[in-house]
Amino acid sequence: MANGQKRADIKYGLDVAVVLKEDQATGRLTYGKVQKILTNSPTHPHGIKVRLNTGEVGRVKEIL
Fold first, then answer.
1. Disulfide engineering: 51 pairs with which of 26, 32, 36, 46, CB 3.0-4.6 Å?
2. For the segment 19-39, what is each residue's pLDDT rounded down to a tens digit?
3. How many helices (H) and strands (E) does the chain have?
4. Which residues pair with 19 in a beta bridge?
5. What gap in Å lies between CA 11 and CA 7, rounded to an integer?
6. Whole-model pTM?
7. Mean pLDDT confidence for 7-20
8. Residue 6 CA to chain centroid, in angstroms?
9. Which of 13, 6, 2 is nearest to 39 (CA)?
């Protein structure tokens, strides 16, 4: 179980837990598969931003 701060750890189709923008205050996690990686930098302290296959966008908090 890796955290989602390194872009190299995240691959298309991976099951992940993300925090959506509207859930940042509560830290509520949303689960899904990675459709697209949106962050270009190799690392990000708050998690790599991805689009899930549901179309939702959030920062990866956990790789399942």
1. 36
2. 999 999 999 999 999 999 999
3. 0, 4
4. 29, 59
5. 8
6. 0.89
7. 94
8. 10
9. 6
